[in-house]
Amino acid sequence: MSEASILVLGATGNVGSEVIKQLTVANQPVIAGIYNKLSQSDDRLTNSLPVDYNDLDLLCRAFSGVGTLVVIIPDSPEMELHAQAIVRCASECHIARYVLISGAGVTLAPTNVLSQRLRAMEQQFVQSNMKGVILRPTFFMQNLINHFTANELGEYHLAMGAGKVNYIDVRDVAKAVISAIGWLSWQLSKSTVFHLTGSESYTFSEVVGVLNEVCNSDFTYIDMPLSDQITLLEKAGLPNWRVEMMTEVFMSIRKSSYDFWSEDFERLTEAKPVSLKEFVAADKTYFRTNYQLNHK
User: Out of 3.30.70.20, 3.40.50.720, 3.30.200.20, 3.30.365.10, which CATH number does the structure's domain 5-138+169-196 have?
Assistant: First the structure.
């Protein structure tokens, strides 16, 4: 493994898999760190190593010879502990640089439990001996595919009220990671935060309007009471900590806490973020198929 190797922790998630893809296209020496309990058979990951934040020996073996860490820690009550393990092994292996994916809620909804976990995670890296970049993205446009789906009547039932949310494409988050890795090669400050946003904020009614305009569909948005949203989360079998976390997120959305724009993405990447219309147009086949299946 080269000294310049980049190890991506959280390589199988939305952001991590896109970072792997873009680094591979750029011919960068990238290693995918895959949680030890997950399947190792993903054909997209040609160069991978097992990691386990509860197994420091295994984690440190994965860190051997790595120059830069890209860290995406999944939401959980153990985020800070996982960060501690990563920082400890990074220190033992003399890793010099990191790029950490956090979240905009640290700034925009600081009292939320998730935001406090993200802040505690960040502090583990800020207080380390490494030089790094912390990226705080807003909501992912891919949530419109992965999490928010219409019912058989073409209705989106969500407890977002009329609150505005800024959305960013995961591919732009990965692009910012790549730029941050290059930026770390010459920056002098020990840690720097970039807030990653798309070009505009939208209510969910406006999101549905974009879907209908681009896809020639007639989806509708039905604002559901927050209590009904909580019931759906509970019926889905989510653990209590995640239900509580999502409840706070929906409450913050309803208050437009995530209606925020920053020029940091353009400053870091020297590129314009993908617009919501561009994202929907690029994935129009999915949205049209979803619409047609629900309108037989």
Answer: 3.40.50.720
